[in-house]
Amino acid sequence: MIVYFNSKFLHKDDVKVSPFDRAYLFADGAYEALRSYNQKLFRLNSHLKRLKHSLTELSILFSGFNDIKTIAEELVKKNNINSDYSFYIQISRGISFPRTHHFASDITPNVFAFVKPIVDNRKQREEGVPIILEKDLRWLRCDIKSISILPAVMVSQKAFSSGVFEAVLYRDNFITEGSHTSFFAVKNNTIYTTPLSNYILDGITRKVVLELCKENQIEYKEENIKVDELKTYDEFFITGTTTEVTPVIKIDDWFVNNGKPGVVTRNIQKLFNIYTENFNE
Ligand SMILES: Cc1ncc(COP(=O)(O)O)c(C=O)c1O
Hints:
By secondary structure, this protein is α+β, with helices and mostly antiparallel strands. 27% of the residues lie in helices and 29% in strands. The relative contact order is 0.14.
């Protein structure tokens, strides 16, 4: 596998990173995960905008935004990928020696990226997935796509070892989002999703779904979803770059809608599929 590291395309085993890179010492960095449709990077500008937000909030100085598309395209060529792909890019603050929490203002970031073919998720989108609810143990700046995501790793692992697809998180009595997805609920044909704040990531797929709702006169509300009112909703789904629009058919022990994806979810999936099938920017 050929990867990108600081302006070079190298075999993955040939990348050398100092253990004094602050990503290693402090998980000090930000990342983005994109994917292609029709081999074009989906919503690249939204991802760049979010990356800029993350880096600005973390005071990481990075100026290579205009190179990101070319890096992805080169990686695709060098790895002979002929299908749609996912693209991961991580910018760490760089090396600081000796180890101190504070950092110099002129530190040079380390940039790492790789691509891999998209894994087929049709079965889970068709059949829907079970999820578990978990307490949100993350920090108060979940709007930053930081690489410091151990709480998400821990609940993801719990979901994985319980044989379910995702852990959806709550703070007090409110659902925030999934460990790596945005969360939606449906009641009486209206779609609900957690409002944007420091408690959740500004999901790009979430944004696309809300745009599709607007264009197609589907009612939606960015409103908190209460844990103790979950059973008053008719349907649920989760969204994400690689998860796309995936129905939730079981929450903990509760089979939602008798364990079948709902009608409104199916309609959103259909609109999303038409949009991505025709994506050509
Ligand atoms: C915490 C969290 N929420 C939501 C999402 C979904 O965001 P997007 O649709 O931009 O992939 C992700 C994606 O990785 C995530 O990590």
